[in-house]
Amino acid sequence: KEFLVEISGTTVTITCPLTEGSITWKSTGMTPVSNERKYVIENHDSSPANVSCSSGGKTYHLYLNARVCANCEELDALAVTGIIAADLLITFGVLILVYYFSKDRKGRASPSAGSRPRGQKVQRPPPVPNPDYEPIRKGQREVYAGLESRGF
Fold it and tell me: Where is the chain membrane-spanning (predicted)?
């Protein structure tokens, strides 16, 4: 048999597993209020407590470590599931919108100040030759007269 513990706000209700006879409650730090099957702790301060109930030679012990708060809201499983499902739907909706709006802009050139037009490529003039490797021109052979051809 087990205790039944119910928490609502700062009120903790403990139900003893014993059903017959006069039930005596004992608790650390608190004085029992009634000799009924249910023991109600009003304005519980979340401190751990040892609670026991006895009747006719049988005793049951409970270590109570219940966290309570005055302004807590209780949510059932259906509400939590609904919140998560709505969040996922909104997230996927935003993702789809971003995808479709960005898909249309892939082929377009963005008109920014520093960009060049993407027209046909203009023919560039050939690069300026390096003066160290200039071809020998007619009339300038004296510059290269000191160089003799090597036989390979």
Answer: 77-101
